[in-house]
Amino acid sequence: MKAVVLDRDGVINQKRQEPIARIEDLHFIPGSLEAIGRLHQAGIPVAIATNQSGIARGVLELDELHAVHRHLQEAVGKHGGRIDMVAFCPHAESSDCDCRKPAPGMLYTIAERLGVELTELTLIGDSLRDMQAALAAAASPMIVRTGKGQQTLDSNKGLEHIPAFDDLAACVDALLADRAAA
Question: Which terminus of the chain has fewer CB atoms gathered within 10 Å of its CB, N or C?
Answer without folding.
Answer: C
